[in-house]
């Protein structure tokens, strides 16, 4: 994050130093710096659509029977661990792919599209991706 802030400040300062006797709108320059910092921060830490805490609650109530601790009691190779999601999840390890899988189901996994709200599914997807990154508690 410090690197992103430094890079933004350096870019803003260098952009302002090359202005040749022109009026500079400092408000727009500051906004550009904030946008750049936000983009740089996004590279280091992706923004998620859902709420991790709410997703954990929905997961525990609806998914944990088969996926407790990020495992899979029906198909043991297809866990919710980072590597397994990257290998087996159609579309790769990302929220959109988890949302699709949870909404539509696949193989032995039932569809939850008619049972859970879109918000609940987005929250579960955020929880699954976030937890797969940090590691599941067994």
From TrEMBL:
Domain Cytochrome c: 50-132
Entry's localization field: Plastid, Chloroplast thylakoid lumen
InterPro entries named in the record: Cyt_c-like_dom, Cyt_c-like_dom_sf, Cyt_C6, Cyt_C_IC
Gene3D superfamilies linked to this entry: Cytochrome c-like domain
GO cellular component, one term: chloroplast thylakoid lumen
MF-aspect GO terms: electron transfer activity; heme binding; iron ion binding
GO biological process: photosynthesis
Signal sequence extent: 1-15
Keyword Transcription regulation carried by entry: no
Keywords: Electron transport, Heme, Iron, Metal-binding, Photosynthesis, Signal, Thylakoid, Transport
Database matches in SUPFAM superfamilies: Cytochrome c
UniProt keyword Signal, yes or no: yes
Family membership: Belongs to the cytochrome c family. PetJ subfamily.
Function statement: Functions as an electron carrier between membrane-bound cytochrome b6-f and photosystem I in oxygenic photosynthesis.
Name this polypeptide is given: Cytochrome c-553
High-level lineage: Eukaryota, Sar, Stramenopiles, Ochrophyta, Bacillariophyta
């Amino acid at each position: 994050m410090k690197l992103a802030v430094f890079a933004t400040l350096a870019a803003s300062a260098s952009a302002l130093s090359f202005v040749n006797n022109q009026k500079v709108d400092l408000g727009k320059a500051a906004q550009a710096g904030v946008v750049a910092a936000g983009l740089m921060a996004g590279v280091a830490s992706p923004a998620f659509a859902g709420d991790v805490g709410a997703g954990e609650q929905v997961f525990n109530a609806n998914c944990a029977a088969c996926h407790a601790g990020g495992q899979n009691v029906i198909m043991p190779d297809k866990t919710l661990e980072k590597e397994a999601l990257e290998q087996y999840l159609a579309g790769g390890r990302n929220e959109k792919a988890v949302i699709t899988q949870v909404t539509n189901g696949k193989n032995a996994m039932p569809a939850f599209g008619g049972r859970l709200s879109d918000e609940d599914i987005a929250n579960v997807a955020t929880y699954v991706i976030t937890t797969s990154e940090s590691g599941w508690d067994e």
